Structure formats: C-alpha cells, structure tokens
C-alpha cells in the first residue's frame, strides 16, 4: 500500500544522496545525446523534473536557453547553486509536469532519466503530452527517456553508500510490489545519514513507476498529435531498439 506523503518525494536528505550519486557532470550517455539532438536549437528549452541540474546545467553550458521546474525545492536549490557557481542563467521554479505554460513558446521540452514514468496514471501522462504539444512552437520537439520493461523483473534488494564530508550517506531499496498488467512498480527507498558511527538522519520514500513500452508511448504521442517520433536506443543516436535495449529515447516532433 502506498502513502501519498511518501510517494516520489525528494526531500532534503534524498536530494543530498541524489547529488552524491548523480552530481553535475555525471552522464550515462544521456547528456551527450541530448546535447547532440539539441545542438543549434534557438529558443527556450524546458526541462520539467530538472532535479539538481545534472542534465540542465551542461546543456546551459553548451549555450542553450534553459528553463527548469521540479516539485522538490530541495533539488531546485542544488540546481540554482550549480548555475550560480558557473555563472549560468537559467529560469528555475517549483512546478510539476502539468504546470507548464502552454503558450506555444518552447523550442524543445525534455524529460531525461525516465522521469515521465513517475506519472502513474496513463490518462494523466496523455494529458501531459497534450499540454506539451500545445506548449511547443511549430516544429518543436519533445524528447524523453523510457526504461526498458525489463525493470518489471528487477526486484532484488540493493544498497549503496557515499562518503560526503564527515558523513556517510546510505541508500537501500527493497521491492514492495510489481503489477505486470498495469506495468507499475513500487520500491521502498530508505535514505540515511550516519555521523560518527551513529544514525543522525533518515528519510523514507516509496518510489513508484509506471513503465511504458516503446511502441505504446509512440502510439500515445502520435495519438495526441505529434507528427513524427524517432527512436534512439541506449543513448546512441538513431540506434534501433532491440530486446536487449535498456533505455530508449523518443524524439517527437510537432508539425511545422
């Protein structure tokens, strides 16, 4: 059973652990692919779920006009600090996927790292895609990542740790539920901060995802009105998805 107060919440300790695990400059191949796809883009690029700026900051450094939102103020604080430290200008504010300005001003909208899967209701995902289409300029693009459906079978518990100054940060995960028919998973994440061998702080989060098949998402994007959808497998431009693919990037175009 999920508790709405715990589902997909990135509070202060979670944001600190995220920054230790995925700092600015760490890429899984996604930063390079997004930079290549967006090279030469003129006009604002919007990233909802910008998080700590792992992708937004290097794209801003590449000269793109970045706008970012995130529901977590703690994550945005880290993104703001990273931008300020590098002398970058980026418009950042608290917001969710459906709080986008739909005035048709964006050259591109990006959701890397599979964050669209945090939306658990398929009808809500469709409504978000419709809003993004309206918010894009003619010829604009919506680029997003999807995890493979293999994730439905990946239920083994795991734990990791990071030394952060005088503190030891730990993160452990156990699977709570998997619904294959609904393509949803719920995991319990426990964030801990240890100092001097004693537990100093802890946070609990229920991490819930609604996974999508590649063709399933392609059909949704086409159904809401995107004119063309291109596929890039495992962060390799124009690579076709196969049964071994772990991550798929979809690039959907609004009619010019």
How would you describe this protein?
- The protein is α/β, with parallel strands linked by helices.
- The chain folds into two domains: 12-147 and 212-253, Rossmann fold (3-Layer(aba) Sandwich); 151-209, N-terminal domain of TfIIb.
- The protein has six helices and eleven strands.
- The chain has helices at residues 12-21, 30-38, 56-61, 73-85, 122-135, 214-224, and strands at residues 44-47, 65-70, 91-94, 106-111, 136-147, 158-164, 167-179, 184-195, 198-210, 228-233, 247-253.
- The strands form two sheets. It has a seven-stranded mixed sheet, with helices on both faces. Strands 6-7-8-9 form a four-stranded antiparallel sheet, covered by helices on one side.
- A hairpin with a 2-residue loop joins strand 6 (158-164) and strand 7 (167-179).
- The longest helix has 14 residues, at 122-135.
- The N and C termini lie far apart (45 Å).
- The model has no long low-confidence stretch (mean pLDDT 95).
- InterPro entries: Methyltransf_25, SAM-dependent_MTases_sf.
- It holds the Pfam family Methyltransf_25.
- This is Methyltransferase domain-containing protein.
- Residues 46-140 form the Methyltransferase domain.
């Amino acid at each position: 059973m999920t508790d709405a107060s715990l589902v997909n919440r990135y509070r202060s300790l979670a944001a600190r652990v995220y920054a230790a695990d995925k700092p600015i400059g760490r890429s899984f191949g996604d930063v390079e692919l997004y930079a290549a796809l967006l090279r030469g883009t003129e006009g604002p690029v919007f990233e909802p779920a910008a998080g700590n700026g792992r992708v937004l900051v290097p794209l801003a450094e590449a000269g793109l006009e970045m706008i970012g939102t995130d529901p977590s103020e703690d994550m945005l604080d880290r993104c703001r600090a990273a931008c300020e430290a590098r002398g970058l200008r980026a418009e950042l504010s608290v917001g969710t996927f459906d709080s986008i300005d739909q005035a048709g001003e964006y050259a591109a909208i990006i959701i890397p790292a599979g964050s669209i899967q945090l939306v658990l209701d398929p009808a809500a995902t469709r409504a978000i895609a419709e809003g993004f289409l309206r918010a894009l300029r003619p010829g604009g693009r919506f680029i997003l990542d999807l995890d493979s459906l293999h994730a439905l079978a990946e239920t083994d518990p795991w734990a990791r740790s990071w030394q952060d100054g005088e503190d030891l940060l730990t993160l452990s995960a156990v699977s709570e539920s998997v619904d294959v028919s609904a393509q949803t998973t719920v995991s319990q994440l426990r964030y801990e901060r240890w100092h001097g061998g004693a537990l100093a702080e802890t946070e609990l989060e229920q991490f819930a995802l609604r996974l999508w098949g590649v063709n399933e998402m392609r059909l949704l994007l086409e159904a809401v009105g995107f004119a063309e959808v291109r596929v890039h497998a495992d962060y390799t431009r124009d690579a076709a998805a196969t049964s071994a693919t772990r991550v798929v990037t979809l690039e959907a175009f609004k009619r010019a």
